[in-house]
Amino acid sequence: MSSMQATSPTTTSNLSADLKPTGNAVAKVKPCCVCKDEKAARDECMLFSTSNNAQQECQDLVSKYRSCMAGYGFSLP
């Protein structure tokens, strides 16, 4: 009756691991799949800005997005 109740310690030891890939795994991540929250905030600011200079108004969000992408090994112009 209890054939599936036992769990091995190796399957539960990774639960608190950092989800951000490191080393060679960073290069395998696609740019479209990372920094989604930062990208959405940046895009929303740029698209719905009522300012005459949206680039200046949203500069902090653009910087956060660039920093996030750099953390995954992508360099943006």
From TrEMBL:
Keywords: Chaperone, Copper, Disulfide bond, Metal-binding, Mitochondrion. Transmembrane segments: none annotated. GO terms for cellular component: mitochondrial intermembrane space. Residues 1-16 have a biased composition (Polar residues). GO terms for biological process: mitochondrial respiratory chain complex IV assembly. Residues 1-20 are annotated as: Disordered. It holds the Pfam family COX17. It is found in: Mitochondrion intermembrane space. Its main location: mitochondrion. InterPro entries: Cys_alpha_HP_mot_SF (IPR009069), Cyt_c_oxidase_Cu-chaperone (IPR007745). Cu cation binds at residues 32-33. One of its GO terms (molecular function) is copper ion binding. Belongs to the COX17 family. This is Cytochrome c oxidase copper chaperone.
